[in-house]
Design a protein that fits this description.
With 69 residues, the protein is α+β, with helices and mostly antiparallel strands. The chain is built from 4 helices and 2 strands, in the order αββααα. The N and C termini lie far apart (30 Å).
């Protein structure tokens, strides 16, 4: 039986995970395709530096003190 990490890795959807310090610890191929960032450039980096999310007005949404954790 496949474990959860294997299932998430094979998912078509873009999936990533962060640790308590908001560093990316999981980045599947779907996420790499969706965002155009390979896992080698995402893993171990702060989520806010990689995702660089913006709100509907184009203002930066991602920051070190993420409200999504």
């Amino acid at each position: 039986m496949a474990n959860l990490a294997d299932l998430l890795f094979r998912a078509v959807d873009g999936i990533f995970a962060v640790d308590a310090g908001q560093k990316i610890i999981f980045w599947n191929p779907g996420c790499a395709e969706l965002l155009g960032i390979p896992s080698s450039m995402a893993l171990g980096r702060p989520c806010s530096q990689v995702v660089q999310g913006k709100d509907s007005a184009g203002q930066p949404f991602c920051e070190g003190a993420c409200c999504m954790t």
